[in-house]
Amino acid sequence: MTDTTNHDADQGSDAGSGDMFNTAAGWVLFAAGLGLGLSIVAGKVFHGNDPQRPDTLGYVIEGVEEGGDEKVEMTMSEALNMDGVDVSAGERVFAKCAACHTIEAGGANGVGPNLHGIMGANVGGVAGYGYSTAMSNFGGQWGWDEMNEWLNNPRSYMDGTAMGFAGISSIEDRAAVALYMNANGSNLPVPEYVAVAAEEDEAVAGEEAEVEAEQDAAEATSEETAAAEASE
Ligand code: HEC
Hints:
By secondary structure, the protein is mainly α. It is about 55% helix and about 0% strand. The chain has 11 helices and no strands.
């Protein structure tokens, strides 16, 4: 890296206050050079020099298949059509909700609103229940994907919600409980799942994961550069 040479020359030649500035500027250049070098290395690690994609895709996809992030791995429509994901499985999952919610027609509002007919209903629309402002202003309806994302992590889906529930990590359980709610006063059509399309989704998801990893690496190096600049 030529920056280091410049930096050494600066230190050797000048004296006085200008020297301090040059030294600092030298370090900034050095840090920037280092960051650039790292991102080039990162680029090689993720891509290699050969632009061809290998026949069998690399470890990124394998990791996904082994079950890292379920949202990447499986869509709601796939989960809804899986063996064992059904109304009775959903009834068991609903035990987690029953402390705060009733589901039968005309059931009382408790800590949370009665959920009879909630699938397809307006968000925050149960009469006589005092919603948080977050939920009453949210808008929209409870479709399959909305319910999936909400139950995965209520607080990240709806900032400021009063639902004190951490969420359900398994997409099969989220799908099952949505089917159970759908069978109690709603009758939304269950989305079909076409296996071929889903395989393509997985390939796309794998590529996205790769791109994300690359972006992470780039962000990390630019953070390092920023940190180096800040500490001057
Ligand atoms: C600790 C109590 C609690 C638990 C457990 C809980 N909820 Fe809730 N839930 C609430 C509260 C409170 C609200 C209203 C949130 C607000 O106003 O921001 C709510 C709102 C909802 C809504 C929106 C209703 C509407 O009218 O739009 C749905 C759907 C829902 N919960 C589903 C569930 C499901 C399914 C489970 C179980 C997997 C569950 N909740 C578990 C307290 C709970």
